[in-house]
Design goal:
Helix content of chain A: 25-40%
Strand order of the largest sheet of chain A: 1-8-3-6
CATH superfamily of the largest domain in chain A: Jelly Rolls
Number of domains of chain A: 2
CATH class of the largest domain in chain A: Mainly Beta
Number of strands of chain A: 11
Oligomer: homodimer
CATH architecture of the largest domain in chain A: Sandwich
CATH topology of the largest domain in chain A: Jelly Rolls
Largest interface: A-B, 47 and 47 residues
Number of helices of chain A: 7
Distance between the termini of chain A: 48 Å
Radius of gyration of chain A: 19 Å
Chain lengths: 247, 247
DNA sequence: CGTAACCTTGAAGCCGATCAAACGTCGTGG
DNA sequence: CCACGACGTTTGATCGGCTTCAAGGTTACG
């Protein structure tokens, strides 16, 4: 029974996000239980995965690809409030309605669980609940860092902040040396960048050009970015160049 | 042994935040265990409770009073990233360093737990972990709503958004009829409002005057606010006047 | 009464938004 | 093959909202 848009489930043990997703802390038997209630869904770039206000009957993890979380005002102004990368969790246990639009920006594969069985399992499986708490606290920190970007940074600093976040997260996914020039692909259009940064797409374009002109970044095509000096980029972002102090 | 700045612990059963704080789901025996590791601390208005980067040896709940969570850039720009009201939780289990400054804006009483015993208890007490997850998810939603305010709203809309949030939260604390004019005290200076909204204090002042001139709010002194028509205020905030759709 | 903290108001300037036009790339169909 | 249009992007010109700088007002408290 292979419905279009769904795929046969590979084993959790081979899952690329096994050690980072909501199931990261699970033992073999717990994984087996999860495996029995999971299913995969694929979405194409541009597809809306969840509409704000709709009833949500599943929760799940991004396996591969990228999605965005956005809010829209009645007059059409939109603000991105989250960027969903592989291993990130979608949906809120305990609430039936979706609060935001979730849109695939690339082709994407999600590992889904029907909401009720998942909630039941969460109640019995502290490993899942704890991991979800940990991930939610991380997301809260990320959201708060973003509030500083939105509220207090200039357009140039906003762009530099976005680039440095994407660069760092990209580096954390692939096993690369941490210094030397960083190279990555921007997964976002200029418009999506603008929605993330609280700017217009024209301003994003102008500031990207300015950063290129000033040698902070190099561009190949519209999306392929090279950062010759990461600490320079972090300075431009208004962050301490020596990384935040966390423990 | 009554150290200045600490008070004798009243019973959890009489606690004003008993049903909303991190302990809300606890049974009598769990409360008793919590009671044995808790202690109260008081802070005066203006005092910094926790410095960003410092080691945090406790977590806790706001019992009464108001505090703010702020981030500061090297050049002094600051952004408030959270407003802590009675029952709100401070501190992150699993992390030793504080990520933000926590400052008392009014005199405040906190119910504190030393971090290690609390973490141990959390591991054994699903009621606590679940409630904390629930509260963290709520905070994440609030942070994301605030990202829309910071990124896409005009100064006037920002002020109206802040006023409507304070008004609604105030209403939820006292058992008042939900319509008719709303009256409340702003717990924030113009500067604190500016830090919350990503504005300057001058702009806050001007827009407050404008909302008053236009009859959206009435002011008695600088802090005492009357909202004759709540739905009018919500329109000014750019929100749907009929309340968000949640379930 | 005097001072300090907080707030209001005014004038000028700048940053980012808005409006507008043109460019490059890609896929489609004549 | 090339014309065409759709889409994403770049760049220019102008406008306006918010910040900045500055001065004066209000309130509380010694």
């Amino acid at each position: 029974m292979n419905v279009p848009g769904q795929a046969i489930s590979p084993s959790c043990m081979d899952c690329p996000i096994r050690h980072r997703a909501v199931c990261a802390r699970c033992e073999a038997d717990e994984l087996a239980a999860l495996e029995s209630i999971k299913y995969y869904r694929s979405f194409e770039a541009g597809q809306t995965i969840i509409w704000s206000g709709d009833k949500m009957d599943f929760v799940g993890s991004v396996v591969s690809g990228i999605a965005t979380l956005t809010q829209t005002m009645e007059d059409g102004r939109t603000q991105m409030v989250g960027l969903l990368l592989p291993s990130d969790f979608v949906g809120r246990p305990g609430r039936s309605g979706a609060a935001y639009d979730v849109v695939a920006t690339t082709d994407i594969v999600m590992c889904c669980f029907r909401k009720n069985p998942f909630e039941k399992m969460m109640a019995d499986t502290p490993h899942i609940a704890h991991r979800l708490l940990e991930m939610t606290l991380d997301e809260l920190d990320a959201a708060r860092e973003w509030m500083l970007v939105l509220g207090r940074k200039t357009a140039r600093e906003k762009i530099a902040s976005l680039l440095s976040i994407v660069a760092r997260r990209d580096a954390s996914l692939r096993p690369t040396a941490t210094h030397g020039p960083m190279v990555f692909d921007l997964p976002l259009t200029r418009e999506a960048m603008a929605d993330y940064l609280g700017l217009t797409l024209e301003t994003v374009s102008r500031k990207m050009s300015a950063l290129k002109r000033d040698g902070v970044i190099q561009l190949e095509g519209k999306r392929h970015v090279t950062v010759p000096d990461m600490s320079r980029l972090m300075e431009e972002a208004g962050d301490d160049a020596d990384g935040g102090v966390f423990a």
